Amino acid sequence: MLIGAVTGFAVATTTGLPVLGALGAMAAAALAASIFAFLVLTLMANQVATGLALTIFGTGVSALIGAPFVGITTPTFGPIFPEALTSSPLLRLVFGHSPVVYLGLILTLAVAWFLARSRAGLILRAVGESDTAAHAIGYPVLTVRYLAILFGGAMAGLAGSYYSLVLTPMWAERLTAGRGWIAIALVVFASWKPGRMLAGAYLFGLVITMELQAKAAGFNMFAPEVLAALPYVATIAVLAIISAAKRGGANAPACLGKSFRATA
Amino acid sequence: MAETAVAPRLELKGISKRFPGVVANDHVSFAVPAGAIHALLGENGAGKSTLVKIIYGVQGADEGEIVFDGQPVRIGSPREARALGIGMVFQHFSLFEAMTVLENIALGMDEPPPRRELEARVRQVLDTYGLSLDPYRHVHTLSVGERQRIEIVRALLQQPKLLIMDEPTSVLTPQEVEQLFTTLRRLAAEGCSILYISHKLHEIKALCQSATIMRGGKVVATCDPREESAQSMAELMIGGSLKALSDKSGAAKGEARFVVASLSAPGEPPFGTSLKDVSFAVRSGEIFGIAGVAGNGQNELLAVVSGENQRGVSGSIRLDGTELARLSVGARRRAGLASSPEERNGHAAVPAMTLTENAILSARSRMGLASGGVIRAKAARDYAAKVIEAFSVKATGPGAAAGSLSGGNLQKFVMGREIMQNPAVLVVSQPTWGVDAGAASFIRQAMIDLAAKGACVVVVSQDLDELLELCDRLAVINEGQLSEPMAVKGISIERVGLLMGGIHGAGQVGAKADTGTGRAPAEKKHLEPAL
User: Taking CB atoms and an 8 Å cutoff, what residues of chain B touch A250?
Assistant: First the structure.
């Protein structure tokens, strides 16, 4: 996400085109994901360890690239709906967002349809359920996994660019403040179902907004740090509840985190 | 079988495949005519699986030629194999548990039609061959026999000219085997050739018209299984004569020594089986068998008896009158109850640890391998070495990692580790699963010898032949319930099969029923190859 955020910002400020910024963010993050893919798929490195290492790498690289861009502003996405539609607060709730928000919603639906209905989605699920079986039938397990990781990287990049181009149109080190971890928690929370994912995203969004609103309202019963910690506390709470529930993780792909050696 | 002028459906010419350190196939040649059911026989590691993977395009051959319907072909992938008309039913690893039957079938096809049309075609194939299967069930809810039907339907939808069946009957009930054979004979009559891989010789005698026997990667014989005896084919397979198991009759004596009464336990969610009121009693010197199709509570029973699972368990487990049901695993071991679970890699043994360390894990108290919390390294190493020696385990020594041993050798080590502690009761699950004939025969003999010393032996196995050969009495487990025990002498295979399929209260049917999977009682004495 950080690599996406900084690349998006850099491209958008240099070219003056936020759309190019978002595309650049996706490409750069996919490139970073391809390092991950190469390490875990081709070299069969441990996925958790590799993921952690690349997180640290991403934080550092984004700070390095971002150094010249600290303290300047960027052109951002204009509204896509006519002004008349955003005149009242209620209408703004529906029409007043950045195009990236709508794109996010559309992509969620698209991914849900892809996984449930399309043949390629069926193959993707199959490769996640049982790599050996998919290989025996003759599907290219590693190719499918490469594509999935690249797609995931691109999506993370897009999410990162939303931070630097829309939410806070500026760049600072560690801009995303660890929100990417919440994305991982969300997947578990949603038990690998895109629909629930959307609901969960709004739930977490609500918790994050509560922090801002509470500050704005001058609510000072707790230190602001406590409020800032809320989304992360919520993440831990949700994961604990899900794991304690009997069917917790029942939907996780059976081959999650397993390497595959294509010889057998 | 008469030679015909027509080119054979499949002809292999000098196929070779080498892996680092081993030649899996060494100039293998044979032919399968159209409409024939041809057996490919051999022990584990003989190269059968590699060979069919080459035919199905999963692996490439280093040398040699495949001729299909008279045309030399190159099969670079399973997709190309299917395009030629080659279908394959895998032994395992080819179904996706979390998906429906229909999704699984669609995944096995290159250009599946839309869902509705596919469903109609699946139902048509099911009707044609008299198979029953619900396309919308999730695979994890199906029995092994039903799962196999998915694979068969998947292959049949492609209208294959050659169907490869890899060890198809290893987990089926006798009735399911019969049904499978009916389907296969019908397919063959329609002109489809079948390459049938197995090491169950009586099945091959019942089904196949010709057989190729492999050993050590080479073809050692081609024969007509209907004219060979099972014994002669077995000896060709292992390349030597099989030692018959020593007579064990009359070893069982006295009162019941190991008594399990009204044992119940809830199953582990989401897919575990609950044990319901399981009772059985084993006398000194007796080998007691528990038959059943996989997933009917065998693993749960073993976990409860060994003490691994104590959650929600009710009932009693008594050895020589002492109650064990409330004791820990370690205390049960000290009392003389040894056990060995089905999965040897990761359950019975820790693959990354050495054989010495694995020996300590289960034998430390009975063999004094640790005292006061400190491991006695020399005693442990000596014990592991003794097991390796006595059970002829092929390993570099006590320092070898358990995971580096072949399945059969690790199983010999695990069994040896338990048996040499001289337990009063030995409870084992699938003692010879995936183990080659020589090792299987060795392990069985070791259990017979243990029983001869007065111990009680409980063998849980899916291999009915093994139980019939080994046991004095057996009972059938189905959905967590155990049937009444039956004496193996004069047992009705048909009744056992019905019990395995979950039909309780099946009437006593005459012992004459020899369904092609069972053996007539008279044959029991000499070695029938339950390999």
Answer: 270
Q: Which pLDDT belongs to residue B3?
A: 45
Interface test with A, best of B94, B102, B109 (most A CBs within 10 A): B94
**pLDDT for the residue B510:** 35
Chain A: residues touching B (Cβ < 8 Å): 119, 122-123, 125-126, 129-130, 132-139, 246-247, 250-251, 254
Residues in chain A closer than 8 A to B96 (CB atoms):
125-126, 129-130, 133-134
CATH number of the domain located at residue range(s) B253-349+405-524 in this protein:
3.40.50.300
One fold for B10-238 and B253-349+405-524: yes
DSSP B141: G
- Using a CB-CB cut-off of 8 Å, the residues of chain A touching B148 are none
CATH code reported for the domain at B10-238: 3.40.50.300
Tell me the per-residue pLDDT of A100-117, one tens digit each, with 9 for 90 and over: 889 999 999 999 999 988
The distance from CA B531 to its chain's CA centroid, rounded to whole angstroms, is 9
Q: Does B77 touch chain A (CB under 8 A)?
A: yes
Instruction: Give the whole-angstrom CA distance, residue B326 versus residue B311.
Output: 11
Range A1-29 burial, b when 16+ CB lie within 10 A, else e:
bbbbbbbbbbbbbeeeebeebbbbbbbbb
For residue B116, the chain A residues in CB contact (below 8 A) are none
Using CB atoms within 10 Å of the CB of residue A256, give its burial: 0 to 12 exposed, 13 to 18 middle, 19+ buried. Answer: exposed
Tell me the domain boundaries of chain B: 10-238, 253-349+405-524
Mean pLDDT of B207-220: 90
Q: Where are the domains of chain A?
A: 2-177, 178-258
For B374, half-sphere exposure in the C-beta direction (CA atoms, 13 angstrom radius) is 3
ipTM above 0.85, yes or no: no
